[in-house]
Amino acid sequence: LRRPGEGRLHRHHADECVTEPSLRDRIIAAAAERTAVAGWSSVTMSRLADDVGVSRQTVYNEVGAKPALAEAMVLDELARFLAVVEAAFDEHPGDAVESVRAAVRGVLERAERSPLLRAIASASQGGDTELLPLLTTQAGSLLAASREVLRGRLRHLVDDRESADLDTAIDAVVRLVLSNVMQPSGSPAATADEIAWVAGRLL
Questions:
Q1: Residue 195 pLDDT more than 50?
Q2: pTM score
Q3: Is 199 exposed, middle or buried (0-12, 13-18, 19+ CB in 10 A)?
Q4: Which residues, other chains included, contact 136 with Cβ-Cβ below 8 Å and sequence gap of 6+?
């Protein structure tokens, strides 16, 4: 997948061959780890350069300024969530509603275990809100990537008569999931059942 404008959204599949991470990937991973441990405010290009063992200028060359790094870090984490979605659809071929149920439950369970998401949530409570807009008011890249994955999976499972409404249904489901990632309203299983019910009506 490609973000609007630039960059590549890496997919993380368990069955992919393990390759040596690129320098850019190593910098993003170091930023995510530092954010999870000490907060986004602790992330500087100089510290990342020390963490990865390169020059500060090299960090800038690879990821750009800090806002670009923040988006890259969030999209990298998103790729791991989208791998969960892909796996759920693989496990329930031909069944749109069960695929959505399994995908939502998997995403919400992973969200509970994500150090980066916990860091973003706790930082926003403490006033460090620089990352939060990437998951809320400035979530365009995140939403677009999520919609693209769901559209690719659902378009073959939906009757042609409803295909015109598919984008509307996908947008509603994606926004429901993101809302529950940021502010859970129940257990992952219960929420997955609720969103699967909505998806079944919409689809």
A1: yes
A2: 0.82
A3: buried
A4: 182
What are the distances in angstroms from CA 197 to CA 98, 100, 113, 149, 203? 10, 9, 25, 20, 10
Pairwise CA distance, residues 110 & 105, whole Å: 9
CB 28 within 8 A of CB 69: yes
d(CA 99, CA 56): 44
Residue 11 clears pLDDT 70, i.e. is over it: no
pLDDT confidence of residue 7: 42
pLDDT (average), residues 67-94:
94
Task: Compute the distance between CA of residue 51 and CA of residue 170 in angstroms, rounded to an integer.
Answer: 40
Question: In Å, what is the CA distance from 133 to each residue of 67, 70, 90, 107, 118?
Answer: 11, 11, 32, 20, 15
Distance, CA of 161 to CA of 203 (rounded, Å): 10
Core vs surface per residue 1-15: b (16+ CB within 10 A) or e: bebeeebebbeeeee
Alpha-carbon gap, residue 19 to 66, rounded angstroms = 26
What gap in Å lies between CA 103 and CA 176, rounded to an integer? 13
* pLDDT, tens digit (0-9, with 9 covering 90-100), for 111-132: 999 999 888 877 655 556 788 8
